[in-house]
Design brief:
Order of helices and strands: EEHEHEEHEHEEEE
Number of strands: 10
CATH topology of one domain: Dihydrofolate Reductase, subunit A
Distance between the termini: 20 Å
CATH architecture of one domain: 3-Layer(aba) Sandwich
CATH superfamily of one domain: Dihydrofolate Reductase, subunit A
Structural class: alpha/beta
Mean pLDDT: 92
Strand order of the largest sheet: 5-4-3-6-1-7-10-9
Helix content: 10-25%
Largest sheet: 8 strands, mixed
Radius of gyration: 16 Å
Shape: globular
CATH class of one domain: Alpha Beta
């Protein structure tokens, strides 16, 4: 089904050296900041989150988000969330849907007919597969002011060249830099 307003965005937070988690899968470094006077204050998170219709994540990201939710609450609110998994998983949250089919079928048959703005929030294997299959419309990378030196890389063995068009950059007062790219068609 065709949906001209559909947009699949990969969003990831990484260190300057491209890591999305430490070797032990921890993300305590997400608090890294460095004052930058010329930076802007971030937009209202509640208003921004209203622009996202659905989240997509891999099963390990889902399990990590569940663990973090014990301390911080479920980060994705009541938005529909599709979790890709080949393992049997369950959830008590009604907005969680588990999916184990092909990615092209997921995007064309399930996501495009129902949503306009879909954000992929992890993990690296899912991002790699979506990029390899040419299903991504844009990439938003938030780079924190830290070098981890080791860990899980964001773009891990994509195995093909993918040209991008820069749509914008934003430097924030906390030292984070956001890069916003669209996939070159």
């Amino acid at each position: 089904m065709s949906n001209p307003g559909f947009n699949l965005t990969i969003h990831m937070v990484s260190s300057l050296d491209g890591m999305i988690a430490k070797p032990d899968n921890s993300i305590s470094w997400f608090e890294a900041s460095s004052p930058y006077e010329k930076g802007v204050t971030g937009e209202d998170p509640e208003q921004f989150l209203k622009t996202i219709d659905c989240y997509v994540m891999g099963s390990r990201t889902y399990e990590h988000a569940l663990e973090l939710s014990k301390s911080y609450g479920w980060a994705y609110g009541d938005k529909p969330t599709v979790v890709l998994t080949s393992r049997p998983l369950t959830s008590e949250m009604k907005q969680i849907e588990f999916y184990s089919g092909g990615l092209t079928q997921l995007v064309t048959d399930k996501l495009k007919p129902r949503y306009n703005s879909v954000w992929v929030v992890g993990g690296a294997a899912l991002v790699r597969a979506l990029l390899q299959e040419g299903l991504v419309d844009e990439v938003r990378l938030s780079i924190l002011p830290i070098i981890l030196g080791d860990g899980l890389p964001f773009f891990d063995h994509v195995a093909r060249e993918l040209p991008l068009n820069l749509k914008g950059t934003t430097a924030y007062k906390n030292g984070m830099l956001e890069l916003h790219y669209e996939m070159a068609k």
